[in-house]
Amino acid sequence: MTSLPEPSAIKLGLVIDLDLCVGCQACVVNCKEWNTSGYGAPLSDDNAYGANPNGAWLNRVHAFEAGDAEDAKTVHFPKSCLHCEDAPCVTACPTGASFKRAEDGIVLVNEDWCIGCGLCAWSCPYGAREMDPVEGVMKKCTLCVDRIYNDNLPKEDQIPACVRTCPTNARHFGDLGDPNSDVSKLVSARDGFDLLPEQKTKPVNKYLPPRPRRQKDETPMSLVAMAEAQNPKGFWKWMDATLDRLG
Amino acid sequence: MHPAWSIIFFTSASGLGLGLAAWVVLGLIDLGNVINFFIVSVFTFGLIGTGLLSSTLHLGHPERAWRALSQWRSSWLSREGVLAVLVLSLLAAWFGWNYLIGSVPFLLGLPLVFLIAVTVYATSMIYASLKTVACWHHPLTPTCYLLFSVSGGLLASMWLLAVAGQSFNSEIYHLTYCLLILTWVAKVLWWKNLDKKSSESTLESATGLGSFGKVRPLMPPHTSENYLQTEMGFVVARRHALKLRVMSILAGGLIPLLVFISFPSSSVLLGLALVLHFVGVFIERWLFFAEAKHVVSLYYGEAQ
User: Fold this and answer.
1) Which domains does chain A have, with CATH numbers?
2) In degrees to the nearest 10, what's the CA dihedral of A139, B59, A204, B223?
3) Which of A178, B112, B213, B221 is the most buried (most CB within 10 A)?
């Protein structure tokens, strides 16, 4: 059914810290690696070794610059499905292939029912869905549904591949429906925000803003001052004094 | 948005065919003669049918297209599919009744005309329901689709009347050119709206970084174009948009209008006018997609 379920109590999703992301693309690669052999058909590439490679990826990291001149800030910006509460991609689907799980809010595609019409990708404001160039079905982030409930994996691996691999801890996974969960606390402590709130999709995933830059009026560090020993002791005191006497 | 030929042909051919079907069911053309019956039914079903078949051509899995009839509760694309199948079946029954029993009572045809109108409306709502494409998400979108269907269908009916050598009264004559004018007036208003209305979304709201100042894209997330850019970031035609708009108005509106007013009973000239009208609507439909900007292109640095 592509009608949306009643909002679930559990809302699994990601919290992405724009202050910590360094744009290393490790989450992008690990996402592709896990999902090419996990849920559904492989994530194919077209012309992978040619001049214009093209393929289906579920996670992309953009980079933006915000502000002007010396205040300009470089922000690496990971973007994948936000598992929206009011997911327009789900209601647009004519076949019932796109659905939102009633139990945890994960948005998935049943690839055996997908006709590859592309209307769900048109209705998503975030560009979270990409057509598989070989299979002709729509691909999207599954929140690694085949990891997070997989008891065959060690406990520390039962989180989405992108979260597991992030070297700077910029990605967090948890239940955003529970106000006492670690991710919810993080969102309220750091003023987490929604992307494109005016599109009224009510995304579950949240983004944490970059922390403000240090105050400008702090005394600038001087390398020269740091290099000069302030109060030499012992042998260095004697040598300092002797060399001074030599002129 | 990427203008797929199959979808452009689908919306223009089915729209014209459904409009024609509505006028036929309203009894505009006398189907008593077997040849008339044959020409009208083949032309009507041909337009609607090839349009619908063409719409399946862009699918990744056309063999599963039947599944699209299942989600009419939430999806306009599904509603359109269900309505189209229903209208085609009822239309076949209507023509069958006409052939076997004789003229279908006028009142019995009215619900079918209503269903035809709802089908065209559903086609337009596939696009008008998308909040992500600001210029489509507007009441003028269904208005234009309905008007193109009604006026194109009437022009096609007038051609068929000329082919069959049947007469028509002056009200229909005036209605035909009035509807054509009204259709293109609505389309010009739609274009005016496209030119002035921009999406309320910005790169600042898309990234949430507005508090730091103006946001600019610095590095793309991939080295060559991806699905999102070829599908949603189509920009090739925009610099020719004005020329194409004029061409579509001339071919789809002005020339057929002048031909119809001057030679309302010439089957050859009306036939040519109808072909030109179809070409004009085809260009209009191509622009409908090619000029439309999708919110996601913000992330790739395009202003809305």
Assistant:
1) 12-208 (3.30.70.20)
2) 50
3) B221
